[in-house]
């Protein structure tokens, strides 16, 4: 049976989001940032969540991790092994929190610089697993080894300031692993790292999910990166999921105009064009979304119905896409763009040199 | 089903910045506008009391009534009477004058001397910075009150020597805040961009850096006003500040200290007056920092 | 303007502890490169490669330990005074990575641009406002946005304003330090197109510092690959990125997401 996010329901669905919507309190109003998101990640799967600023990808992670700012409202269900995290009382929530491991973009902001690596790693072990100091230290050294840090017995005594960004990120992953989570949320975990370091971390995550059956939610703005490592990629725009594809299909055969635009806008290593094709305007968040499809003002293939109706997720090869023209595919769309979307194309041409909003 | 996280109204902060959610102060994380408003109103009222004391006070604050020492509140004397039978309410009103004047002088001089010193230290760097910073450190090395006592003992006890003493300890405080704020700004690319164009150091300082540290300075000054008030009250309480017939809240406390078991009002009301000035000042200082930052950064 | 960097080196003295010995750290060692008039050269490398330090030395924000920087054959002063800085600013300008921090937060961007124009004194007072409008237009910003402060603009708009400010001095070369890495993908493409247009329109040279090989492939003609302070490989972009001869360059190329392959995953 195909899940609403286009996935074939895996045997163990570790993490599932059902119609999750999050709103933030801004000033006196409550504005949406995540709208009706459905996601699922099974044991051993890496699911990518890709989007630009305002897409809602980080807020989705925050919703799962219970790290929203005060005044936020959430509806829908966040199921961890079938149990709804949002419906739990504080005590139960604290009990299951170790099952959700988190790795963030800037490890230095989340690791106390005055604590040695040992203190950071053993804290979880002692508090949640009840290990003694000595037992915890042994386990911590094992963990450092698991995440590929050399000379773990020496590193365990070091301070975060003595380590590079990549190494510290591995320490953060080790910390997340120490309490044996079922799910790992990696929120832009490699964005601040060099390309070669990033490759290393990404290979580590891949190995960990195979060896430990971790469900990994990999959040990034880099579609190519998600495509390279994820089993399934979900693209978000203005708080909604707009495309979900498995395998490498999202790169080879994108079905949502936004995804196509994202791919086209990236410089390529195997070709060089005089100018990059550009999606005009800027990405918006859910709170600024117009009526109908949130992407329609920027879409070169817009139809009249796009302005008034929100497209449903339509099944396409290997996934779903939220577009009335999802079945058409990139080749047919660019051929047909002369018809039916004059307004936006004309806008694009005249606005070429002028980005003003 | 909806789960709502309740919390106080927060100013718009970039959602990515989790670091700002401090555990303990989640309650005070965003000051309700009502608290800030009340604080400002209170401050205005107190300043008005000081200015209009002659009109508001029923009695001459120094007129004794030796038949009724330590009398409690009555219809005639709303706050009661002190050790010499003087009307406490009138003394509070007149006392506001010196209690407010003192910190004002302290702040004005500390600002006037400390800020340029801080700028010079941050901007010139090198030996100037080392020299100024070490002088500051020397002053910091002495417990402020002790230093104040020494100064007052040298120049004789009076309101102005107390003010002078406190000012000396506040100049380095202000200077250091300015220096730190400038150093932070100096690291930012926009200052480098100015240097690249060939703008001179003073021009960068005055036209670009100073406006950017403005709100920190204002907020800090407000806070120091409150602390200077406390320090001056402490000196007066020790008998080292204003001398009779001058009145300030610190001297009132000293005066009431001996008879506290006979009449608590002599202690309660001056203390309350101090609290009602210091606490709102703290809220306002905090609000200045948060609000103007929110306004600058909001899109 | 022809820029020639010859045997540039920079060694920082790192002090450890209060009275600790200073350990020398060679951030840049013997780097030489050239940017021809109207040329576009990129310096690529990872953190610690020294690429940013080279750019900062070229522009005058760091003092080289040894080596020289020549503009049209004349050596630029190592420790420029104010007048020399202003002259250098007319030759080359820098665009920084974080647009919000590279502009004065309290100054409307139009005023920042006008300030630069006034400082260089090449435009009559009465014509300054018109010039600011011209520059805003050249970078694709609506005139009314000139009254906004940086935080009131989006990242892309702010970077455009920073570019306009750089152009205000009418430089012959732009030095860009990771100019788009802090921006969204769709905005990155817009700024890259803008840079290509400006190069054509004004004939300025470009020295770009980046870690993004694909972007460099798009926008630069020549590339210099740096690693740990040294130049590892240099040459035409097509040649170096399509058929790199050095193992480090090959390693870099193999690690980028478009080329990444995981064991067990199909590629």
What's the architecture of chain C in CATH terms? Answer: 3-Layer(aba) Sandwich
Number of domains of chain B: 1
Please identify the structural class of chain B as seen in this structure.
mainly alpha
Per CATH, the superfamily of chain C is P-loop containing nucleotide triphosphate hydrolases
Total number of beta strands of chain C: 10
Instruction: Kindly identify the CATH topology of chain C.
Output: Rossmann fold
Number of helices, counting only DSSP H or I runs of 4 residues or more of chain C: 9
How is the largest sheet of chain C built, in terms of strand order?
A: 6-7-8-3-9-10
Rounded mean pLDDT score of chain C = 91
Structure annotation, total helices of chain B: 10
Distance between the termini of chain B: 32 Å
Largest sheet of chain C: 6 strands, mixed
| Contiguous uncertain segments of 5+ residues of chain B | 1-29
The SS-based structural class of chain C is alpha/beta
Keywords:
heterotrimer; A: 357 residues; alpha/beta; four-stranded antiparallel sheet; 13 helices; 12 strands; globular; disordered C terminus; B: 299 residues; mainly alpha; MetI-like fold; 10 helices; 69% helix; 1% strand; elongated
Topology:
The complex is a heterotrimer of chains A (357), B (299) and C (267).
Chain A: E1 13-26, E2 29-42, E3 46-50, H1 57-65, E4 73-80, E5 83-84, H2 90-96, E6 100-103, H3 107-110, H4 117-128, H5 133-146, H6 152-155, H7 165-178, E7 183-187, H8 195-212, E8 215-220, H9 223-229, E9 232-237, E10 240-246, H10 249-252, H11 257-265, E11 314-316, E12 319-321, H12 329-336, H13 342-351
Parallel strand pairs in A: 3-8, 3-9, 6-7, 7-8
Antiparallel strand pairs in A: 1-2, 1-4, 4-5, 9-10, 10-12, 11-12
Helix pairs in contact in A: 4-5, 4-7, 5-7
Chain B: E1 2-4, H1 33-51, H2 53-56, H3 88-124, H4 126-141, H5 144-155, H6 159-187, H7 189-197, H8 201-237, H9 249-257, H10 265-297
Helix pairs in contact in B: 1-3, 1-10, 3-4, 3-6, 3-8, 4-6, 5-6, 6-8, 8-9, 8-10, 9-10
Chain C: E1 3-15, E2 22-35, E3 40-44, H1 51-59, E4 66-71, E5 74-75, H2 82-91, E6 92-95, H3 109-120, H4 128-138, H5 155-167, E7 173-177, H6 185-202, E8 205-210, H7 213-219, E9 222-227, E10 230-236, H8 237-242, H9 247-255
Helix pairs in contact in C: 3-4, 3-5, 4-5, 5-6
């Amino acid at each position: 049976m195909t899940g609403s996010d286009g996935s074939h329901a895996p045997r163990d669905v570790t993490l599932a989001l059902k119609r999750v919507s999050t709103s933030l309190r801004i000033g006196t109003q409550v504005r949406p940032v995540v709208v009706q998101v459905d996601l699922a990640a099974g044991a051993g799967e890496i699911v990518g969540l890709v989007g630009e600023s305002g897409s809602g990808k980080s807020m989705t992670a925050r919703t799962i991790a219970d790290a929203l700012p005060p005044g936020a409202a959430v509806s829908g269900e966040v199921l961890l092994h079938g149990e709804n995290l949002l419906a739990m009382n504080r005590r139960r929530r604290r009990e299951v929190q170790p099952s959700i491991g988190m790795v963030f973009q800037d490890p230095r902001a989340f690791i106390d610089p005055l604590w040695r690596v040992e203190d950071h790693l053993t804290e979880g072990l002692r508090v949640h697993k009840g290990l003694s100091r000595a037992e915890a230290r042994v386990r911590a050294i094992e963990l450092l080894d698991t995440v590929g840090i050399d000379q773990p017995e020496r590193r365990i005594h070091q301070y975060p300031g003595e380590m590079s960004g990549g190494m510290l990120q591995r320490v953060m992953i080790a910390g997340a692993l120490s309490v044996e989570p079922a799910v790992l949320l990696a929120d832009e975990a490699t964005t601040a790292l060099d390309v070669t370091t990033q490759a290393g971390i990404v290979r580590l995550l891949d190995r960990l999910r195979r060896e430990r059956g971790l469900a990994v939610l990999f959040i990034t703005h880099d579609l190519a990166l998600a495509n390279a490592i994820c089993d399934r990629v979900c693209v978000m725009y203005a708080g909604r999921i707009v495309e979900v594809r498995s395998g490498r299909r999202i790169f080879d055969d994108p079905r949502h105009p936004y995804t196509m635009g994202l791919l086209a806008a990236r410089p390529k290593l195997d070709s060089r064009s005089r100018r990059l094709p550009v999606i005009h305007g800027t990405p918006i968040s859910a709170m600024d979304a117009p009526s109908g499809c949130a992407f329609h003002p920027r879409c070169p293939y817009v139809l009249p119905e796009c302005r008034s109706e929100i497209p449903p997720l339509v099944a396409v090869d290997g996934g779903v896409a939220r577009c009335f023209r999802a079945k058409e595919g990139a080749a047919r769309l660019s051929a047909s763009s002369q018809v039916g979307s004059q307004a936006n194309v004309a806008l694009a041409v005249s606005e070429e040199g002028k980005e003003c909003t | 089903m909806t789960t709502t996280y309740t919390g106080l109204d927060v100013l718009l902060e970039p959602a990515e910045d989790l670091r700002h959610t401090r555990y303990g102060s989640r309650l005070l994380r965003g000051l309700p506008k009502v608290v800030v408003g009340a604080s400002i109103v209170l401050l205005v009222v107190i300043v008005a009391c000081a200015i209009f004391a002659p009109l508001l006070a029923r009695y001459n604050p120094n007129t004794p009534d030796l038949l009724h020492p330590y009398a409690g509140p009555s219809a005639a004397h709303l706050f009661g009477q002190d050790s010499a039978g003087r009307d406490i309410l009138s003394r509070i009103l007149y006392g506001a004058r010196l209690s407010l004047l003192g910190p004002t002088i302290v702040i004005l001089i500390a600002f006037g001397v400390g800020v340029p010193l801080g700028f010079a230290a941050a901007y010139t760097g090198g030996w100037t910075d080392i020299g100024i910073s070490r002088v500051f450190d020397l002053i910091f090395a002495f417990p402020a009150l002790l230093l104040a006592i020494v100064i007052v003992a040298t120049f004789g006890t009076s309101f102005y020597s107390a003010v002078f003493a406190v000012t000396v300890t506040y100049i380095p405080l202000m200077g250091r805040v300015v220096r730190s704020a400038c150093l932070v700004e100096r690291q930012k690319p926009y200052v480098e961009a100015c240097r690249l164009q060939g703008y001179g150091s003073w021009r960068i300082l005055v036209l670009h850096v100073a406006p950017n540290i403005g709100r920190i300075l204002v907020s800090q000054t407000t806070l120091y006003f409150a602390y200077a008030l406390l320090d001056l009250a402490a000196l007066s309480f020790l008998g080292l500040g204003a001398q009779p017939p001058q009145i300030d809240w610190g001297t009132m406390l000293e005066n009431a200290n001996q008879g506290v078991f006979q009449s608590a009002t002599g202690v309660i009301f001056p203390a309350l007056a101090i609290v009602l000035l210091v606490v709102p000042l703290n809220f306002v200082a905090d609000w200045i920092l948060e609000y103007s930052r929110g306004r600058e950064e909001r899109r | 303007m022809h820029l020639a960097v010859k045997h540039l080196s920079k060694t920082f003295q790192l002090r450890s502890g209060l009275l600790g010995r200073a350990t020398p750290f060679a951030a840049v060692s013997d780097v030489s490169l050239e940017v021809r008039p109207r040329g576009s050269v990129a310096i690529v490398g990872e953190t610690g490669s020294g690429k940013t330090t080279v750019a900062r030395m070229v522009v005058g924000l760091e003092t080289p330990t040894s080596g020289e920087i020549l503009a049209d054959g004349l050596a630029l002063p190592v420790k420029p005074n104010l007048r020399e800085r202003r002259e250098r600013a007319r030759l080359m300008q820098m665009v920084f990575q974080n647009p919000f921090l590279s502009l004065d937060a309290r100054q409307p961007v139009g005023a920042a641009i006008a300030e630069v124009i006034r400082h260089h004194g090449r435009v009559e007072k009465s014509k300054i406002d018109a010039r600011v409008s011209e520059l805003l237009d050249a970078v694709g910003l609506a005139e009314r946005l000139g009254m906004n402060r940086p935080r009131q603009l989006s990242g892309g708009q702010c970077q455009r304003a920073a570019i306009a400010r750089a152009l205000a001095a009418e430089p012959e070369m732009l030095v860009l330090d990771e100019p788009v890495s802090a921006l969204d993908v769709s905005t990155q493409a817009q700024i890259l197109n803008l840079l290509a247009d400006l190069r054509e329109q004004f004939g300025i040279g470009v020295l770009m510092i980046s870690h993004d090989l694909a972007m460099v492939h798009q926008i630069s003609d020549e590339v210099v690959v740096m690693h740990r302070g040294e130049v590892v490989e240099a040459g035409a972009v097509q040649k170096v990125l399509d058929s790199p001869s050095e193992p480090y360059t090959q390693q870099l190329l193999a690690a980028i997401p478009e080329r990444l392959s995981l064991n067990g995953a199909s590629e």
